[in-house]
Specification:
The structure is a homotetramer. The first copy, chain A, is an alpha/beta fold. Helices cover about 40% and strands about 20% of the residues of chain A. The first copy, chain A, has helices at about 15-30, 40-45, 55-60, 95-105, 120-130, 155-175, 190-200, 215-225, 265-275, 295-315, 335-340, 350-355, and strands spanning about 5-10, 35-40, 50-55, 80-85, 90-95, 110-115, 135-140, 180-185, 205, 230-235, 280-285, 320-325, 325-330.
Chain lengths: ~350, ~350, ~350, ~350
């Protein structure tokens, strides 16, 4: 059956999104003979009639190694709770999901691939419940989605964070400093855990294991003697301090720029005070989301895009692709949204890290 | 029980060997309180009384990101078939395995970690059969060991090969050339397959799928038109041409330097002739084995080293560590040696590559 | 004449310091047959009798590509104004420069190479005035030393900053954001200027050209339309805003960790307010000082180390090496300290940047 | 005066060509208000009526970091000696330069920027002599153009070669091998010299200093003992052996693929024979020409493109831009073509390399 399918990307940036777009376009065309169009700006663009982008072979050829998404992605725009300005000037939240459905129809799309995080999957799932033909590609750089072993973007984030640790280490060593590096991970500490082990950190602080700042200070004291005077601490942005105010705002709490930062500076200041040490804090921030995807992320994104087109051929609406061991499998979006994958404080990786001498501040 | 354990590395170089050494030393010391010594030059060094290296914490601290092995590794030296010069000047092959056993005893080692490829595992296994207390860490950059999903060094090789493809692509595109890149993989095409997909190759030639050079030429002809005149071909060094002399020696077949190269030049010359095209050949060679390990390889090597020490604690002599899904598991060395893990010509990855439009020359 | 010379490193970290140490050791030994010892922790270590490090060939072999300094470096310790605790518990500043001279004598050093910034050069110069035999190697990652075209570490900092901009750009483009990146440069905007041009920034804010935040906002407004909605701003940490409070402290002004950041957040907050835009701020911080030096920095550091030994052979005490065009030349330390090399607001590079469409906020 | 100018790229690939195109387009538009069109496939495309490419801001925005040239480049196509097939089937060489002039007129171009090597400059110069309004941007990755201190692409080539050396070193060290790396440099040894020093080579063989293979072998013998058994040799492809057949062809001399390689394998085979050592040869080849330009090359390419547009405004036909110290200056193309810039065997850089213990095989 000749089909015309659409693809949109939603939520935060992740290296590999463009590789998904490329794989969807190539697979649909080569394997099934379908036409593919890109929809700009995610579900928000879909609702508001953003322009579409034809995706012939020549258009997607160079996307494999390119960071970001050529379709744009926004962190807003839920058709089920859409904010509009009423005639009296007040803001009102309305359900415009039928407009989204209508728009899919108007664009003459037989099916839609939605690549995004849990927010995007939740919208997609609700639209599927209304009859839309949507399959999903999961995206979360934090690696906290339960139904898939890993998602694209995570490997690139680990590489960026580990290379940053490598750089900080030479300065830490030369200047006998304690270097704190804050990485992404609001709810799960995967990036901190993996980059911390790979980058030779002395302490790793993650949301799943609340830390005692005095234990961290004690570890640093030991480490500084053993390592000729320096120490490396990786802190996930969602790390929780026992008995403490969890965050340390930079700038104006209410402003856009003011939101960045937090626990890294908190840990830095407390260690500086407790140890009378030379402490420096680095917040990796958006560097972790950008740049060219690693080969592994290019491969996984390609596998996901390819499998999503197969899901459409199988008419498995409401399913998204996932990685299980070495296999790409379909899982229900509803399942994927429900569960968060957290680091197991008693699991193999944490236990190994402790055996190597890494402290979790406990 | 207080123990003194040894570690040696054998076979070809692979990024991550030093991270294994570090993990063994740290785990033995921190978790079990054991002493660790390094034995230089693998089993060859063990037999010949090569000097040992104490491995305290300070000695292994900087090894995580360092390529190669500080213990040295040689591709020769089997105690079971050792070549000696007889008094009459003739070469004789003798079994000196009892010397190796004696040397382990003389060094006062309670157990030994042997990190290496199938040759190293075979020797280790035979020594275990004679009563030696050895556990193994598998190492093969080609990823062709059956009992483990993946080994360290493979991810770094993929990164090096993919980055090289990225570089070749810009020149191929600017000059409308066909670029051939030969990568490692004597018996299995994993590196070619993974880097070829991740690097956007038009054709991938691997040992598991004998190729028809006319089919490759036909693909290139199509590609050159579609891609504004260029094409990328990745060739595993063990790729087999249908009906052809398999290799194309460079230099003197018998000499050390003359062994390099082969099928890449063969494919290049044939395509140049058949297509009257501008063709260039690049042989990646040893670049794939060197350099800093990727974070993923540092992590896997660390997991392997850590688990090997646990195997010693459990006295599982003759076992080696392996990766299965997300778990590190022990497998019998005898099992690991017996099976080669080849690319499945009908498997998911090859099928996906074909769907994307990649040719395997068939 | 057989000599025994010492080398010390002072001030902030810079990629290439280890390459200087290597070049000094190899040149002294190979060319002149001299012995070389390293003095730990700069002039502070010299005064306090820090241990010395013999530097034979085998010790310096692997230093070329290694970041930081194996000798350690501290940002304190001036023998001419040394703080001591008096018997009554009060702090006193005393001149202990004669102790430094004595220590050079006690270590049996015929001459000393001091690698460091203007602080280190100032101390060295004063000691030379007292009779010490010292030559200098200039080090400033900010590239603000007047007497040399460029110093090692600068090229590596530019690479790190440009790669970071490349990463931020993909996210900026995908999310239609304004990304602010704060780089080093307290008194001179070289890193911001060079990385900004090389990384495709839309605006570059440097100390030499005070900026009007409304002009920056106006540029961003134009840029966002032209570039499908995103913009990149590079801000030197010493950039000065017209009519504004110059800095924006993060955390506690008095604490160690609290010192980081500043004008980047200030610009970010103001732009977010003025444009109602999605703005993100990244502070590169210590990432710019760390890591492996680029080939160019390895080469320049090697040239400097080599030339410094020649200066000793010529007994040019009080001179330091410098780069002029393609030549390494000796300059008086006193000259070098006196002048700062600032970006010329009317110079070729700024003019070119303006021609390309880059705004300086004026 | 409102103008419409063209730009073409010729000769071999070099990282930075796209940055030149971008700088020409942005400068022409922003500074002068001119229109810019790209001409595909160099002078060959100009003659044969290849399609032109409009270069508005949106088209050139992403070119700064992109390798290769979007305009294509060919190594053939001289209007002054053009090969045509005569009616009788024979090949004839004819002068079609008037067609090239006519084509410039037909395209309504007021002036032309020609970016390329000495071949491209020679054609441009001859056309200028016939009345064409052309300015030049020099491009030679080998850095062998006399009138400019350096050209773009060279820094990227050095980075690629040095990173490759870093990788080979870990294997060389682990396996006690001699590693040979052949780099570009047919007539001048700049890449070998700079990457060899920056990468810690033990011997560097360049065209300017004919080498004695026995001297190289003797150096390797010494080095292997001192360095625990390994050595690194960098060989320029044009290196000349004293008393020897200069080249060592790989494959069929006459074929396209067969041209690659040469002296690297020759040196490798001879050292393997003379030393009974384990020797491996790597030919970097086209990896050196590809990939993203370094920040320094992006900057220089941008400066060149910007200055070329200024040359047009000044109507300096027959001039090309060049780097002298820190200045961009105009030089006559005729001057630039005449002189090759070779490494001075008695110059500072070679002398320093010798002082560090590097052998040139003499």
């Amino acid at each position: 059956m000749k089909r015309r399918i659409g693809i949109l990307t939603g939520g935060g940036d992740a290296p590999g999104l463009n590789a998904v777009i490329r794989a969807v376009a190539l697979t649909a065309r080569n394997k099934y003979g379908w036409e593919v169009v890109g929809i700009r700006e995610g579900f928000d663009g879909l609702m508001h009639g953003a322009s579409t982008v034809p995706l012939p072979k020549g258009r997607v050829r160079d996307l494999l190694a390119r960071g970001g998404t050529i379709l744009g992605a926004v962190n807003r725009g839920n058709p089920f709770s859409h904010t509009v300005i009423a005639p009296d000037g007040s803001e009102q939240v309305v359900d415009v999901s039928d407009q989204a459905l209508q728009r899919i129809h108007d664009l003459d799309l037989d099916a839609l691939v939605a690549a995004g995080g849990d927010g995007t999957m939740a919208i997609a799932q609700s639209l599927v419940a209304m009859g839309a033909k949507i399959v999903g590609v999961p995206k979360t750089i934090d690696n906290d989605l339960a139904m898939t072993d890993v998602t694209f973007g995570f490997d690139t984030a680990i590489l960026t964070a580990t290379e940053a640790l490598d750089k900080l280490q030479t300065t830490a060593e030369s200047h006998h400093r304690i270097m704190i590096m804050e990485v992404m991970g609001r709810d799960a500490g995967w990036i901190a855990l993996y980059s911390g082990i790979a980058g030779g950190a002395d302490a790793i602080l993650i949301p799943e294991i609340p830390f005692d700042i005095d234990k961290v200070a004690a570890k640093m004291e030991t480490t500084r003697i053993g390592r000729r005077g320096y120490g490396l601490v990786v802190v996930a942005e969602g790390a929780a301090m026992l008995g403490g105010d969890q965050h340390y705002y930079i700038g104006d709490k209410g402003s856009a720029a003011g939101r960045l930062g937090g626990v890294g500076y908190l840990v830095g200041n407390l260690l500086a005070d407790k140890l009378d040490a030379d402490v420096r804090v680095t917040v990796l921030g958006h560097l972790q989301r950008g740049g060219q995807p690693t080969p592994r992320d290019r491969l996984l994104a390609t596998q996901f895009g390819h499998a999503a087109v197969d899901l459409i051929a199988q008419e498995k609406w409401g399913y998204m692709v996932a990685l299980r061991g070495n296999d790409i499998v379909p899982v229900l979006m509803t399942e994927a949204i429900r569960h968060l994958k957290a680091v197991d404080p008693a699991g193999d990786m944490v236990r190994m890290a402790r055996d190597l001498g890494i402290s979790f501040g406990t």
